[in-house]
Specification:
transferase activity, transferring alkyl or aryl (other than methyl) groups, 299 residues, 16 helices, Prenyltransferase, Tetracycline Repressor, domain 2, transmembrane helix, UbiA_sf, transferase, mainly alpha
């Protein structure tokens, strides 16, 4: 099944709009709440300095990662009718300017990690490498969705290290501070919604011999893969609620998010044209759970 909707398409002719579409800056909503939840779940004191630096780190990584993703996939996107109107391909953003954005984002990210703590800085390449290699995953195997899920989960990891790095005595303590149950909940949630997104390029990916569960197993196979990921994510969410002694507000947000996840899959089983709607619902899932965790822990 091939659908034409593309969140990265340039529709308004302006330099600012083109850059915002290149970066898909609104999708930072997927990243920042996970960062703050990762910080709060360590149960270490959180300072304004850490919040500001962690925010800059995420924004820098988003700029570098999204821009490089567009550069690395340009030859593929040019051949795909759904993605052929992206800023680099229309000329609204030049490749020179795109590389400048990659360098600027990378500088912001690593500088923020450096000023956060020693452990934040030495672990920062892990997040960077995983996120910058994402566009190549589909060239090697049919499960790049797990790679994207890992990229999102590592934002939780980074948030935890941003806070704990100031207080721990060694690297192992820093790693142990990460809320791993929430980490895996985010990983499988991200993998699940990306599998749904891949349905839009099922036919194109097959023709280009690119990896995705939709290209390998068809749209129904992608939905079943997404469902399995959502089930695992739901279990980890509920374990996290119990393990971290979170309140009823967080539990309610998790139940709503679990409902939304399964609604996405069901709506696409009913009509595959619901894929864009299902994808956009993920902004709600990412925001409400993390915000409710913050309210429960900080208020």
């Amino acid at each position: 099944m091939s659908l034409k909707w593309d969140p990265g398409e340039v529709k308004k002719k302006s330099s600012l709009n083109a850059i915002l579409k290149l970066l898909r800056i609104e999708h930072t909503l997927l990243d920042l709440p996970f960062t703050y939840a990762g910080m709060a779940l360590t149960h270490y004191p959180i300072t304004l300095r850490e919040v500001v630096l962690a925010t800059f780190a995420v924004i820098g990584l988003r700029i570098a990662g999204m821009t490089y993703n567009n550069i690395a996939d340009a030859d593929i996107d040019r051949k795909n009718p759904r993605t052929a109107r992206r800023p680099l391909l229309t000329g609204d953003v030049s490749f020179r300017d795109a590389w400048i954005l990659v360098a600027l984002g990378s500088l912001i990210y690593f500088a923020s990690a450096f000023f956060l703590s020693f452990y934040a800085f030495i672990l920062s390449p892990i997040l960077y490498i995983v996120i910058m290699t994402y566009p190549f995953a589909k060239r090697f195997h049919p499960f790049p969705h797990l790679h994207l899920g890992l990229s999102l989960a590592l934002i939780v990891f980074g948030g935890a290290i941003a806070t704990s790095g100031e207080y721990v005595n060694n690297l192992m303590e820093a790693i142990e501070s990460v809320p791993w149950t929430y980490f895996f909940a985010v990983l499988f949630w991200g993998s699940g919604f990306d599998a749904i997104y891949s349905i839009m390029d099922e036919e194109f990916d097959k023709s280009m011999k690119l990896g995705s569960v939709a290209a390998r197993f068809g749209s129904r196979g992608a939905l079943m893969f997404s469902l399995a990921n959502y089930i695992i994510s739901s279990l980890f969410l509920l374990i996290a609620w119990r393990l971290y002694n979170l309140g009823l507000l967080t539990l309610a947000s998790m139940i709503i998010s679990i409902f939304i996840m399964f609604y996405q899959v069901a709506s696409c089983f009913i009509d595959i044209k619901n894929v864009p709607k299902a994808f956009n619902l993920n902004l709600i899932v990412g925001v409400i759970v993390s915000i409710c965790i913050l309210i429960d822990l900080l208020l």
